[in-house]
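Lab channel / #folding
Pinned by the channel admin:
"Please post every new chain as: sequence first, then the structure tokens as a reply. Keep commentary short and put observations after the output so the thread stays searchable."

First post following the new format, from NK:
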Amino acid sequence: MVKRKGIARTIQVAVLGAAVLGGLLSAPAASAAGPAPQKPAVPAGAECDPGLLCMWSQTNFGGLIRYQFTAVPPGDCNSLFGYPVMRSAYNRTGVILRLKSNFFCTGDDYTIANNTALGDITARSIGGFP
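Reply from TO:
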């Protein structure tokens, strides 16, 4: 019986030692340059097809309705008459756009680069950049 306890204990120690050693050997090696850069994540709820400016009537891409617009040429302005105030936007047009807080591209300016999302804005018009 003593031998059986010894054998079981030896097996336990061997299994535990292998698990610890396996964890040490499989741990990712630290890079001298630091962690690898990660792609920016698309904000939750901000699904938007390429070629479009998608806007939502609630902050942080909330609400049941998503509005889609195409790019506005530089110097042009599209006032969003008939739409609610836009509170968040995701630009996938391929160009930089300016969102303005008032109609006729006046008021506060939100410059939004391609593949950029803004989660808390007030926009009533879209202007081409510059």
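NK: The first strand starts at residue 53 and ends at 58.
TO: also worth noting, The helical segments are 2-26.
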